[in-house]
Amino acid sequence: MHPLVRDVLERSPQLSTKPVEIVLSDKNTGFPIVQHRSKGRSAFKRALRQPSVQVNPVANSQTTQPLSPFTTPQRTVFNDKSSYDDISASADAILANMTQEERAKGQEEIFEHFGDGILDTMEKLKLVRERRKNNSQPSVQVMNPQEAVLPSTETKQPRRKIRFLDPTESDIHVYEPSPSSPRRPLGLLLPPPDDPQEGENITSLKSYQTSSKKHMTSLGDLASSADDSDSPESIRRRFFPSEPRPEDHPSLVWMLSQPTSTDQALLDNLTSNEIRYSLSGVPLSPSEICELPTHMGLHHHASTSSALSSDAPAGYTLEDLLHLSRSSVPAQRVNILGVLGKTFRNTYTAMFSFEETPMRDVYLRVNLNEMRRNIFDSAVEAVVERGWIGQRAVDVLWEIIVGCTCAEMRLTDIESFPRVDLTTSSIPNSNTTLEAKSRSLLLNESSTFLATLPVQRLLLPLKSHLIANSLFNSPTYNAILDIIYILCHFANHAKILVEPNISSGIISTILEGHLSSNLEFDNDNPPNEKPIRILQALALSSRDVAQHLLGPADILLRYVTTMQDKLRLNSIHASMLRETLSFYASLMRYGLYANIVSTAHTHFILLLSNLRKYLLDDVVGATPLLSTYLEILELLIVCATNPHQITPQHDVVWSQIEAFGWIDQVFDLVDTLTRIPMTDGSSKEIELLWTRLFHVLAAWTEGAHVNCVRSGEEEKKKTIMKLRPHVLGGTLNISLRRALEQLSLQKANMDIFKLNSHIHLINAYLRLSLSSMLPDHRLPFDSFSQDLCEISRVVLRNPATFDIFQVIISTNVHQSLSEDLHLNIRSLSALLFLILRIRFLALDSPGAKILWFADALLILHTFLPGDQYFAKWIIQRICETFSWDLMLRILPETIHHPQRGLDILLPFWSGTFIPQVITIDDDEDNTRKPCYPNIWAISEDLSRITSLNLPSLSTLRRQWQAQDSTLIFPLRSTWTLWPLDHLLQSGNSFIFKTLSTNWDATEIEVVRTTLIFTQVVQQLNKQYPSNLTSLSVMAGSETIFTCMKVFMLEDDQGQLETGEVYRDPFVEECLSKLLSPFTLRNANKQTTDFTSGSLELASRSYLGKRIPFYQFYTNFLALYDSISFSHPLFAKLLLPPLSSSYPRDYRKLFFGDYAHVVPTIRTEPADILSSGIEEYLWPIEQDRQILGFFMNVLFKYSVHGFLRWFIIHHLSANIWSDMHPTLEDFNPNYSARLLRAIFSQDKMDTVKNMVLYHQTRANLITPPQCYQPDPKIIEIRKNLLENYDISLKEAFSNLIIQI
């Protein structure tokens, strides 16, 4: 490439003389004489007064001047054409006399000195001379081709003038980034193998041929390499022509072109630490990493290595970004924090979208939880900084806490965040698909990460940013509010946020910075609803947190009292007022802040009047605020129904509700709503308003039943009279009919989200109908209620109804479900319960009662946390109506029956459903058990509620699969046996602490009644199967552990002569019938899954996490050893943990420490509790310690039944290789030792059984056939003994002869 500079024009230097100033000096010292400046002029002024001297320039000449060290030699300039012609002719003569080799050498010297572009330069100079010649202009004659010097003139021009050539594409070159030399270790050069086939798979290095000959580069080679001027070979040719070629020198092999792999091949080998990101947070492909130019800012000097390139490639690894996020340069730190936020957002978006993208495989290699924690640590360190660094750190925290959480739950915005507690996380199932399992794992990691966040480290810096941005609705301010809002959904973080030492910093900052001062809103200062949503989320988290928010509730009351005149629908005032009322509703669900009735009742009455007027103008716009207001009104009525349940007590009383006349206004609102025509655009809103009105009136009639005379007959009649015309016609009738029609159309698949609003309307109507029922027990709206019941029965028998509940806790379903799915399903549970209540009014025959019992037991398994009062009502009705005559119809073969009714068991079930408000002694934290609210408010529920946020769906699944003892709902199949659990823990049971003084049942009566009722429940569930049978019928492991608990009971009241409960004939009969379906004899008749969990899993609901089942089994075995006296049923329960599916510790305990109890167990193989004998026989036991225990028990004691078969099978499989499943694990030496030990024993019958025993897994042979001699087996084992000692052969032959 030739230079851009063409020629330089110079003038001769202008010489100027300057008089030298003579400075006098002192004769004595030699130094200049000092003179004060006040006595003379300064040097500057003296220089100004000196005249300047003009010096004429020296003309150029051809004569050579003597050179000094400070002068530049003059260039020779030719001004006449003759001199140029003479030189040209002389050069042509010299060129003609040169040989071809001399010309090539001269070309090489020219190119080496001037570069490759000298040809283009001389061509352009030739064109310039010809153009000047044609224009009759004097040509420039130069001696040096690179420098053209013009004659100087006397005109005033710059001393030096540079003229540039016109640039072309070949003149401008952009250098692409090229990787540096790879640092590859050089291996030893070995000679090739002599055998060609031996070296086929060996990659040999090319041999290096030494040569002292210099490689000459021709002009053609230079021209051919112009397109690859920046390659390593081109650089070598241009600047290092004397060096050998790369293929001739091992040190230069790296310069050769390497075969490139495809991007996909490199991606397959890429690890998460090697992923490199651009400044926009997007992973770079391998080709981009190697080819991106350096001017994009993606090349740096980090020491991180990459598998894609040995140089510093383009992009930043996560390690690089984390390192740079702690930079001391503020601008760099701000930019890198932004890159971290983008990188994390792109990663979690790709992971949770499950859409096929080109780089999705790269994202899936990232450990999202690890990335999240590392970026969080960097953001926390930066959030304490002020200015842009802190604000950018807040943005990163928003991505980590808010953005990722919303993406996991597939939420479009934060406002649709589910009202669930996310403190605990999910555990994925082993049977889910890969996509579902990966998402479940991510949800698990995310929930665990958020639940363990160090919130204390965030609060102080977030407070400072809130103060700095509270006056402006800035993005940073909104981001902080979003972060706090998400943290409020974790109960442990919500408690920290309202602690006294912290709430003064966070809650007061939110209130003082926004709520307390922004009552006058305008376009420049719009309101922000997020602070009120934060308070509401805090109130939902727990009762303790809600009690800290009563102070802020008084501040928000200003919105209610000051916005009456400003209220306009679809305005910012209505939105803020609606959020405020929602916050009050959350407090009232705990029975808190009910004094608002006396504080601002006039404003609430005025608000209802205004809303009723607005309803006629815009039903869609008025519905959100009006529905929230009706919820407040319902809660106030519920609080006044039983003032003892609110905090503080008697904060509102029933007389206040009557005095304020709210119900009359509600009836006026009913009349107003019936005058509004129903359209497609307003049908949902009208349906919602009718639902709210029904709940308000139902709460009113329920409260009147308690607080008014004659159980509120007058109030009920008034309600029926007002509603009857509207139920039979009008918009209310249309809404009810359409809801029933939609419900009846759901046959195969039920869309609960689509039906939810219709089900809520039906539930509200049925609740009002039941609460308004007069003493004659007739429904107030006969014709419509009958139609409703008919359709509801169809829903109850629809399999799709129970498929929804199966999805919640089943382990074989897709995991990617909404975290609040169960919140929508609760409405269906309430509908089934209300249908059951209506059917209870018409139980007129034993057959109807039995069918009602079966349906009631089935509906119990559809209840979720918060439905405890529904379950309590069903249990109470069952205990009231159940009789032993009905039991004999269900269990006709029963010989005995208990003397007491089910009423003695009611305290155990009701007390477990609804925890008492007392502390539990056996809890370490000494706190009340969790209690969640009913789907609609109940007065008895107010003082017991601990949290309004139900556990998330992930939490329910985790607790269900882990057999968590704290999970009451959904009910397990063993709920009928809860009285036995309380008997075993009577010293610590809270039920016994709260029992009535009238309860006088004995222990044996409780056991008898519990066992017979359990049989009845199991029989009904089998006679009336449904999709919930797997949840309602006890599995084999649960039944076995239940019977084990019965054997642990003792009769301390002296009613039995023996002192043990299990020796009672009635109890023994019940236990035998419960275990009979799970014996090997009835294996083909089993209708339930026996293998659904082991005893270790089934015992967790009773033992908890602290006590392992092995400890329980040890105590159980010791109890058998001490008091059983070979009880056959007791002995049968000892055998299940001996199967191969349990750890070896159980077999070591049984055959080692308690070997003396083996002779007392005579259980036959057909009576074993198992669905298949294979789990006891395979895999073969190979632990030598256990095999030693087998030998000791077999030849020391008299072993019978199944245990004899069990021991002989495992010993014989270790002796005879024909029984061993894999010959690779067979040990002939150990086999010979066992056989020698057997032949030395005196029990010949046992020895014969060991020698002749044969078994195959394909065709199982049971005793005694498996001990019979088989000629084929005997011949095979003779051949096996050929490699053994001769003594063993002789002993075997003698034994065969005796047979």
From TrEMBL:
- Chain positions covered by the region annotation Disordered: 131-250
Biological process GO annotation list? transcription by RNA polymerase II
Which stretches are tagged as biased composition: Basic and acidic residues? Answer: 163-174
Ranges of Polar residues composition bias in the record: 135-144, 200-211
Q: Which InterPro entries match?
A: RPAP1/Rba50 (IPR039913), RPAP1_C (IPR013929), TPR_RPAP1/MINIYO-like (IPR057989)
Name by which UniProt lists this protein: RNA polymerase II-associated protein 1
Domain of life, per lineage: Eukaryota
Which residues lie in Low complexity bias regions? 177-189
Q: Provide the RPAP1/MINIYO-like TPR repeats domain boundaries.
A: 996-1199
